[in-house]
C-alpha cells in the first residue's frame, strides 16, 4: 500500500465485506497497520444504497447487525424490496420466512443480494455465505436476485468512478479467480491473480477466466506494476 | 375412500409429509374420519430409509423432530450423507452450517432431500419448504441433491410396488400439477388433477404437464373411476 501510494498511483480497495460498516472495516485494517481511509473502500452496502436511492426502493434488511448503520439514511418504511447480506446469526428460520413472505407478497419481487459467495472460513469452521441464502429465496419465489458486490460489473464501475480512472488504466489484484479477476476483466480492466488466500492451483485451469498474469504475493504484484510505470 | 375400498380397488396415499412419522400422520387422518392404515401410506422418510439401506449410507439428519423415529433403525454413526427434510424450527443457522460442513468434508457429498417443495401455508403464514434449503446446500457445495418423494419416479414406483399393480392399471389423483400429475405420468400412470387445494387456473396452461382429465373434487374423481370399472 505504502509503495503504491508513494508512486502517485491511485488505490481503491474492493471488498465484499458485509458484516461491518466501512468505518469499522477501515478501523480494523488501520489497527493492523494499513494506511487506508473510508473513501478508499468500495463495499456492497454503499453500492446497494446508491441503487436503492436511484430506483426509489425501500428495503427490508436481512443483514448482519454490524451493517445496519450503512442504511441509516435509507427510507425503510413499507418495504418494496429485500436486501440480503451475510446476516450470520440473523439467518434464523423466522427471519428467512419473514423475508420470503415480503418477497412473495410483492407484485414483482425485488431481491438485492450483497454478494453471492458460497461459504467462508472462520476460526470456528466453515459458514454458509449469503449466496446460499440468496439461492433459497430465489428458488422459493422463482426469481433472480440482483447481486451487488464482486463480481458484478456495476460494482467495479463504481470503484472506477471513485478513482476517476477509465478501466484500461486500472489493474485489479485479487485472490478470487471469479469474483476478483473475472469481474474486473468483464469491466475492461486487467487483473492479476495472487497465489495466496483463496487461490487454488486448479484456478489456473479455470474454464472461463484467465488472469493477465499470476503473482506469488501482493509485494510481487506491486513490483510488476511499478516496473511498468 | 370408503367408496373406493368398497369397490375392491386398491388404494395408496402418496404424501410428501415430512414433519411427522406415518403413524402420527395416519392418527391425524383417522381422527378426521378417514379409514386409512400405515401400510396404505407412501411417504418420503421410509423411501429414504430404503435407499439408505440399499446403498449402505449412514445419514446425518436435518429433519423435523417429529420425523426422527422413522430413522430409528438406521445406523447414523460416522455419517456419510445428509438427509434433509422440512425441519421447520430446526432450520437454524447452526444446524445448516453443521449439515454444510459435513457435506463439504465428504469426498463425494451425498445430499438426500425428502422433497423439493418451495413453500407451504400454515395458519400463521407462508413458510419456506425443504426445497429452498436444499437449493442453499446444493449451491454452497456445488452438488445436486437426490430428491426422494413426489415427483421422483422412484417414489411412485415404490407406491406401485406396495399396491402390487403395474403403472398402466393405476390412476393418480392430486392437486399439484407437477408433483402429483407430472410425477405419476412420468412413471406411466394416468393422472387426474382435482380443482381444489393447490390447484390454480393457470395450471391448465402448464407448459410441460397435462393431466389426463380434470375433476372438480375428489368425489367426482371417484365417480369417474368407478364408472369405468
UniProtKB/TrEMBL annotation, chains A, B:
Its EC number is 3.6.1.1. It catalyses: diphosphate + H2O = 2 phosphate + H(+). It is found in: Cytoplasm; Nucleus. GO terms for molecular function: inorganic diphosphate phosphatase activity; metal ion binding; phosphatase activity. Its cofactor is Mg(2+). Keywords: Cytoplasm, Hydrolase, Magnesium, Metal-binding, Nucleus. It is an enzyme of class 3 (hydrolase). GO terms for cellular component: cytosol; nucleus. InterPro entries: HAD-like_sf, HAD-SF_hydro_IIA, HAD_sf, LHPP/HDHD2. Pfam families: Hydrolase_6, Hydrolase_like. Phosphatase that hydrolyzes imidodiphosphate, 3-phosphohistidine and 6-phospholysine. Has broad substrate specificity and can also hydrolyze inorganic diphosphate, but with lower efficiency. NCBIfam families: HAD-SF-IIA-hyp3. Belongs to the HAD-like hydrolase superfamily. This is Phospholysine phosphohistidine inorganic pyrophosphate phosphatase. It comes from Myiagra hebetior.
